[in-house]
Amino acid sequence: MPTPKKGPRLASSPAHERLMLANMATSLFQHGRITTTLPKAKRLRPLAERLITFAKRGDLHSRRRVMRVIRNKSVVHVLFTQIAEQMEQREGGYTRIVKIAPRKGDSTPAAVIELVTEPVSPKKAVVKEAEAATKVAAATEAPVEETAAAEAPVEASAETAAEETADKAE
After folding, report:
1. Which residue in 37, 55, 65, 124 has its CB near the most CB atoms, within 10 A?
2. Helical axes 14-31 vs 38-57, angle rounded to 10°
3. pTM value?
4. How would DSSP label each residue in the chain?
5. Can you tell me the distance from the alpha carbon of 84 to that of 116, in angstroms, rounded to the nearest whole number?
6. For 110-133, what is each residue's pLDDT tens digit?
């Protein structure tokens, strides 16, 4: 059964939750990482990734859509110029959530949400699998060529035999 989206929120009302997430997204883009509770970090991740995707587009409409959420123009400028440029090679996964020790006061599970700034490296396992598949394909094609070459004289001899039979019939 899908998780219901209505009901208890992070705060008292949907409007307050929207404002809290906008403030957290602003802080995340301004500082690169923030420490918050785990549920808030999990709710912030989709919003932050969507905003980065808009920033990667870079057009005026995307900038206006981001400005609906993040009201600070200097943070939007940083998002569109620096952060979007860093994330250009990434196809997703712009943020990372790392669980840390529970908060001291109320023992709430805490987490650090941060922007992933490392350059994208090609997956080594995928490259190894592709190389192995190429080797297997090359190995299976070589015997096929040999058998095709071996079958060619048989077919030629069958054609010559058919011609000889047609000559005899005349």
Report:
1. 55
2. 70
3. 0.68
4. -PPPSSS--SSSSHHHHHHHHHHHHHHHHHHSEEEEEHHHHHHHHHHHHHHHHHHHH-SHHHHHHHHHH---HHHHHHIIIIIHHHTTT-SS--EEEEEEPPPTTT---EEEEEE--SPP---HHHHHHHHHHHHHHHHHHHHHHHHHHHHHHHHHHHHHHHHHHHHHH-
5. 12
6. 999 999 988 887 666 677 778 888
